[in-house]
């Protein structure tokens, strides 16, 4: 969690049992963590016409949950759900990522939003430094500020600063997010240029603009909360974030990389560890993209990446 930064968190429950377990865990987190009570709002999505018939919060169990063991409590709750409940969304009911992203955004009340995923961890004091940086910006409203994202070897501690992160990267203990599994995901950020940028102090500055934008780019960014919403026809994995970023680019947004802040995701990912259901969902979403790009062209009457040209 970013100290001092309010968080709008949205998630999805596919059935009554999942929803009741989710509510129990949220109550546990709020009971045990003052920052969560003060800084985090929770927003839940359920299937239309299949909402819960009743809420069952095991208050006795809640009282017994140990505050010092949040991951253990979570694993215990998940153990209560059988394999069908945990895995059904992978094939029969893909997780509605774009719907919950929009839900989280709609419940933000600040001028700017940092659009991120729950497993992406921000660097130290990022919220406070961003407040200072954004107060000085004079943008026309179509600026997106990119926060470089790295994967970390699971054996290492979170780097306290950019210098240590670069040291880890030089030792092979960190690398750009999705570098091995899908390089285009973050490639346009130009991590080499970011690493070579000499920060005069710890204040946030623009390291460089993104000059080689290409489709499939999926940066984690901060922007005024007037950016286009995520298209909810893309469900599960694939084309969920990059389609929204593509529309921003067509609409005239410019992307600027910030330093020395960064975010990290634990685990050096490789292709052979990715389950087959992810590729299945990606293929399903790819079929939706043809109609999406035609709509974007009609909406803005622009095609800067020649997406409408015959392949």
Automatic annotation (TrEMBL):
Keyword Manganese applies: yes
Cellular component per GO, a single term: Golgi membrane
A GO BP entry: protein O-linked glycosylation via mannose
Location in or out of the cell: Golgi apparatus membrane
Pathway, per record: Protein modification; protein glycosylation
Pfam family, one: Glyco_transf_49
Tree of life domain: Eukaryota
Membrane topology: Single-pass type II membrane protein
Needed co-factor(s): Mn(2+)
Keywords: Glycoprotein, Glycosyltransferase, Golgi apparatus, Manganese, Membrane, Metal-binding, Signal-anchor, Transferase, Transmembrane, Transmembrane helix
Entry annotated with the keyword Transmembrane helix: yes
GO molecular function, one term: metal ion binding
Main location class: Golgi
Catalytic activities: 3-O-[beta-D-Xyl-(1->4)-Rib-ol-P-Rib-ol-P-3-beta-D-GalNAc-(1->3)-beta-D-GlcNAc-(1->4)-(O-6-P-alpha-D-Man)]-Thr-[protein] + UDP-alpha-D-glucuronate = 3-O-[beta-D-GlcA-(1->3)-beta-D-Xyl-(1->4)-Rib-ol-P-Rib-ol-P-3-beta-D-GalNAc-(1->3)-beta-D-GlcNAc-(1->4)-(O-6-P-alpha-D-Man)]-Thr-[protein] + UDP + H(+)
Annotated family: Belongs to the glycosyltransferase 49 family.
Stated name of the protein: Beta-1,4-glucuronyltransferase 1
Provenance organism: Rhynchophorus ferrugineus (Red palm weevil)
